[in-house]
Structures
1.
Amino acid sequence: MKHIAESTVRRLSLYLRFLEDFEAQGHATISSGELAAQGGTTSAQVRKDLSLFGSFGKRGLGYSVSDLSRSLRGILGLGREWNVFIVGAGKIGAALAQFRGFRQRGFKVIAVYDVEPARIGRPLGDLVVRDQTEMESDIARLRLDIALLAVPPEAAQPLVDRVVKAGVRAILSFAPAPIHVPPHVTLRSVNMAFELEILSYALVHADK
Amino acid sequence: MKHIAESTVRRLSLYLRFLEDFEAQGHATISSGELAAQGGTTSAQVRKDLSLFGSFGKRGLGYSVSDLSRSLRGILGLGREWNVFIVGAGKIGAALAQFRGFRQRGFKVIAVYDVEPARIGRPLGDLVVRDQTEMESDIARLRLDIALLAVPPEAAQPLVDRVVKAGVRAILSFAPAPIHVPPHVTLRSVNMAFELEILSYALVHADK
DNA sequence: ATCTGTGAACCGGTTCACAGCC
DNA sequence: GGCTGTGAACCGGTTCACAGAT
């Protein structure tokens, strides 16, 4: 399969969300135009995005809501459960551990790690904070798929190196630091500082 | 000034971070190549980004670290303090309220709001959760610039409409819901569900 | 000699427009 | 007639390559 742009994948997630809403409302079929209106894109964009993966619609008719949902879930890899673990049981890690939204899409948070002796052993939601030294063996034993990194910036890269070495191939980092990973690993970074500075820039340059 | 791509602004933030590191290390001058190496871009990209705002370097020499830092801070609007407020004192709102990283870049969190009577009046870091009904008047009175939205998805759009109507022009949302704002308002959205689904997609399509 | 600043070429994602099917 | 699927045109961000300054 040829390379797919990240923006496309993001839109597919969005479409899926709308399809689920539509399904709940009992609609059986939907057109690219209707999907586009919900998501703030164009019908051509929707059709192009979908066409990258196959032909899911019927000309003159539109898309079957349930079929397209199923297809999108398949494309996005949501047909299974992913084992997620959190590294860092500070404020952000704790908030992540107790975040409800993960479960309903098949992302199951099954472990939280920290180095601080004071934090290890403490309950967090329905988990208990584990010692970071156990992380590597747990990754193999529990088949951990996705790492959520919520640690101070200076700890980020060494920890990434450790989880990558232990076989993890997907990381979502909240650490405000640039991180490097080998090509077979996918890293996404949420950096609040950057987001705020983009807002600051926009406020200052309001005289667009 | 012509329109600047968001990716450019994000890189400027990155450059600024590196410049501060360099400054701390006592370097007086830096080349586009050195900046690029740190940030994982190319020297041409660095020069192009900067050239959009003026000529900051000296040919044959490079850029003055302190001058360029100052210029970037100016461009990004970091020469002043921004008043930030948080809407929603749940898990995520609480983590945001206690996040240290904001202050050091001039983003000052000065109020937290919620609707839940049980949460109103409770301390959060060195703030006290305020009643959401006071939000509009506070926005004017306290000159609140930036809203951080940490509320359930169904509450997001109505609250955005309220803060926009009260004069806020910059919003960072953590709510997993699509939000619409008028053109004079800048909205950034951090959506954990999308990030995870992009990772899921990457894991499933590892046969790149 | 070195490194910046920038027009030109390039590339990839988005939009257009229309042929094809229901 | 309505809506999909898709090659072609378009557009804007990135990369190239070189002229210009120190």
2.
Amino acid sequence: MPKRLTRSFFSRSVHEVAPDLIGATLLFDGVGGRLVEVEAYHQTDPASHSYGGPTARNAVMFGPPGFVYVYRSYGIHWCLNFVCEPKGTASAVLIRAIEPTTDLAVMRRRRGVTDERLLCSGPGRLCEALRITDRQYGLALDAPPFELFASSGPVEVIAGPRIGLTKAAEKPWRYGEKGSRFLSKPFPAATTVLN
DNA sequence: TGCCCGATTAACT
DNA sequence: GTTAATCGGGCAA
């Protein structure tokens, strides 16, 4: 059986946690798959929702690590984040793409598409497929209905610029599995290979 | 209270 | 390649 990740996994620098999450398996109510793309956000980072200090929306980011931050994007979509670092650092990892493994039929129904690559390739898409909304705001990642398992083998991780930002767009804090078909977008050709 | 705009997506040309 | 959809957060006034 794969090893479960507990909340202590997240009590490290967000720039260590983010690449380490690639290849891990996330399930919500038994639906999900392998994490293949994430982005790191830190309080000192102008692109982070925590940059301006605590508010009602970002409050969970200022709490202990290993909990879920969910926000509304463009008034339409939900986006899922994992809070990282010791309490007060207000950093988080945005989950951007999942390689779907279970349950494909459920995800196809929720998404209204059949193509595997359109089920969970994008932060808004994966929340629709897993049925993540603000009702999950503040839930712990190491307790039901969430399940999180470490990668079962080595993974080749690449890093590049984050997607869709106007501030701090040059920071290479997007991490993905090299060669994955399930990335929300390809990484630029000149991309750093980790490991 | 009003205004601007975004860690997106799908449906266009 | 471009753009509409859609609305709450954050800040100016």
